[in-house]
Amino acid sequence: AQSVTQLGSHVSVSEGALVLLRCNYSSSVPPYLFWYVQYPNQGLQLLLKYTSAATLVKGINGFEAEFKKSETSFHLTKPSAHMRDAAEYFCAVSLGSGNTGKLIFGQGTTLQVKP
Amino acid sequence: NAGVTQTPKFQVLKTGQSMTLQCAQDMNHNSMYWYRQDPGMGLRLIYYSASEGTTDKGEVPNGYNVSRLNKREFSLRLESAAPSQTSVYFCASSELGQGALYEQYFGPGTRLTVT
Predict the structure, then answer these.
(1) 8 Å CB contact between A34 and A49
(2) Which of B42, B56, B58 sits opposite A108 (nearest CB)?
(3) CB count, 10 Å around CB of A41?
(4) Is B90–A107 a contact, with Cβ atoms under 8 angstroms apart?
(5) What is the pLDDT of residues A11-49, one digit of tens each?
(6) Residue B20: beta bridge partners?
(7) How many angstroms separate the CA atoms of A17 and A20, rounded?
(8) What is the Cα–Cα distance from B92 to A50, expressed in whole angstroms?
(9) Nearest-CA neighbor of B65 among B90, B43, B34?
């Protein structure tokens, strides 16, 4: 069965520092992987997605993620954090086979950016 | 183009009361989903509808029912609310696609408190 684990429920960085949010998945089939961001009191917004076209995926707001099959990881990075990046981030995996489009979400990581 | 809309935004219920959460999308998507979000648990799928006329249980369906009224609308009903159903509820929609690689679009959420 597919599952997603996000390491670290809270990550704190200084403005301008590197952001690294970790996501590991388990899947019996080649996965489709997503990162979503949730700003306070809002719904989720897609940051980026991996659909097997390229292992390094670039998303919005300067974020990117690299799919590493050998490590079953899809970590999210940004070279330089902005105050506006403070939000909750969710990694998700698609169940793949079939056409239902269901997603399994990780527990979420809250990113704090300090001035 | 409003995307995914949800009503109401906030609701307080007493134990045993019933209510229906409404969701509508204007993107002509086939698939729609209901999630609940609880602290530290990410988003968990309650029910989904892969296409108009079909509904299926997700991870946490107990205590809920759904109706796919037409292609645009997907409602979630709590027949007899319980304090354990206090949560933030999100509706989402996506296009069907081979391999389930299409992203889900989320509504702004409904904050439900059951006392």
Answers:
(1) yes
(2) B42
(3) 10
(4) no
(5) 999 999 999 999 999 877 778 899 999 998 889 999 998
(6) B77
(7) 10
(8) 19
(9) B34
Residues of A in contact with B43 (CB under 8 A): 44, 90, 103, 105
Residues 6+ apart with CB under 8 A from B12: B112, B113, B114, B115
The answer to whether residue B96 scores a pLDDT higher than 80 is no
Tell me the per-residue pLDDT of A37-94, one tens digit each, with 9 for 90 and over. 999 888 999 999 887 778 899 999 999 999 998 899 999 999 999 999 999 999 998 8
pLDDT at residue A110 greater than cutoff 90: yes
Query: Considering only CA atoms, which of A58, A15, A57, A59 is closest in space to residue A37?
Result: A59
Compute the distance between CA of residue A86 and CA of residue A11 in angstroms, rounded to an integer: 10
**3-state secondary structure string, chain A?**
CCEEEEECCEEEEECCCCEEEEEEEECCCCCCEEEEEECCCCCEEEEEEECCCCCEEECHHHCEEEEEHHHCEEEEEECCCCHHHCEEEEEEEECCCCCCCCEEECCCEEEEEEC
